[in-house]
Amino acid sequence: MKPNQIDRIIRRVDRLPTLPIIYTKLTRLLQAPNTTVQTVGNIIAEDQAIAVKVLRLVNSAFYGLPHKIGSLKHAIVLLGLNQVKNLVLATSTLQMFQEFKSAEAFDMKKFWEHSVGCAIAAKVLAETAHMGSPDDVFSGGLLHDVGKLIHAIYLDEAFTAVIADVQENEVPMIESEKKILGYDHSYTGRELAARWSLSQGTIEMIAHHHLSDSSARITKEIAAVHVGDILCIALGLGSGGEKKVPVAQTKAWDILDIDLSRLDYIVTRIEKLFSESVSILES
Amino acid sequence: MGTVNLNDVEDGMVLLSEVSNKHGNVMLKPGDKLTDKTIMLLKSWGITEVDIEGHDGDVVDGKDKDVLSPDIIASIEKEVNGQFFDFTDNPFMERLYGIVKKSKMKCVAEATIGNSDETESN
Q1: Which structural domain range is residue B74 located in?
Q2: pLDDT digit string (tens) for A87-145?
Q3: Which of A80, A121, A93 is nearest to A196 (CA)?
Q4: Which terminus of chain B is less hemmed in, N or C, by CB atoms within 10 Å?
Q5: Do A247 and B4 touch (CB under 8 A)?
Q6: How many domains does chain A contain in total?
Q7: Is A149 inside a domain boundary?
Q8: Residue B56: its pLDDT value, please?
Q9: Which member of B7, B8, B92 has the closest CB to residue A260?
Q10: What is the CA radius of gyration of chain A?
């Protein structure tokens, strides 16, 4: 199959996964200069499942607040609008991943866990590197492998062959995809992200998280997703279908400019946040 | 050295490095034992992480090596080696490999101690 065939799949609007309305509404609201916490609270309150998760998150051990928070508005103030947006995106992707019938060999539940794990890992790296945009990096991490979702839904047989090749021959998935499909999931992911009108920064994190395009400029955000993805695979947080831990490019770690002695702390923090987040998001 | 997020520190842990406030004044010295009260104070000063004594992976690694037999250590190393692609001259991957191996050894060591405790109580 050639990339232009993927373009045709991407254009089939009727069956393509869509981002939920609540996320689109929130993104639009957060870009507007006069948005208030009350307005955001009203949007969240429309979806009771998400409203409950916002309250559970703010009352979790991670925030360690001395008093229980019962008001949605108060919770949004404490978490911050971007954190709430991330929670909505993570919850929505879980629904989206569960909606579609995928290649049998591909475990959607573990794939979603891998996506959440990478989002958390990339965000922890961004915070440790004192980057200005840890919440944008979270979105990029969450959606970095979204191209695999399209492969799993639409390329049943070919993608099953990719998964078998990765497991039997112990090769990285992008190599197998290029060999069997003619392109890899970062290409498909970029096309889908553009169709969803995601920000240019998020599209770039999805398109370049394997750092396979030597001509692309590697930003700190892309480096965080690249390293976050590999940390997640090494720590066994969910699974995106890889058999072995891919080798992180040294330039990515160099770009992040984090002292290597802090990696133990970073790993501990990722594992703690992961187990807590998955239990909240799945509830 | 072990840098620990303030949300993860516990009463009784000992500081490895001094803690200063934003004006550079030393508030706590190396060797000071943390209490619930000082942890709360650190949070109120806006401190997010501290260096904790003994929070060093190698120390734990040493203890685990005492518990595990050489055969088990060798099989853990073989298993972890099999999970990674070859990497050379990549300090990040070397460190990550070390962390994964240490974590696996810790798990097996804890299970071994747990099993022997159970056997003794029987």
Answers
A1: 57-121
A2: 888 887 777 777 777 777 888 889 989 999 999 999 999 999 999 888 889 989 999 99
A3: A93
A4: C
A5: no
A6: 2
A7: yes
A8: 47
A9: B92
A10: 18
The two structure tokens encoding residue B22: 């934003």
**Per-residue pLDDT for B62 more than 60?**
no
Place of tokens 């240019």: A200
Question: Tell me, what amino acid is at A159?
Answer: F
Number of structural domains, chain B?
A: 2
**How confident is residue A35, by pLDDT bands cut at 50, 70 and 90?**
confident
Are residues A245 and B83 in contact, defined by beta-carbon separation less than 8 angstroms? Answer: yes
**A7 domain residue, yes or no:** no
Q: Check whether B1 has a pLDDT greater than 60.
A: no
Which positions in chain A touch B1 (Cβ < 8 Å)?
Answer: 261
Sort A206 into a burial class: Cβ within 10 Å, 0-12 / 13-18 / 19+.
buried
A177 falls within a domain? yes
Do residues B61 and B46 share a domain? no
Token duo for residue A171: 């090769």
Angle between helices A220-235 and A134-143 (to 10 degrees): 50
Instruction: Identify the pLDDT of residue B60.
Output: 45
3-state secondary structure of B20: strand
Domain identity same for A36 and A106: no
- Chain B residues touching A260 at Cβ < 8 A: 91-92, 95
Same domain, A38 and A120: no
Which residue, B5, B11, B82, is CA-closest to B48?
A: B5
User: Which residue range is the domain that position A166 belongs to?
Assistant: 102-283
Residues of A in contact with B3 (CB under 8 A): 261-262, 265
Alpha-helix runs per DSSP H in chain A: 3-11, 21-31, 37-45, 48-58, 72-79, 81-99, 108-128, 134-143, 146-154, 156-169, 173-180, 185-195, 200-208, 220-235, 250-256, 263-282
Tokens at A93, concatenated: 């992707």
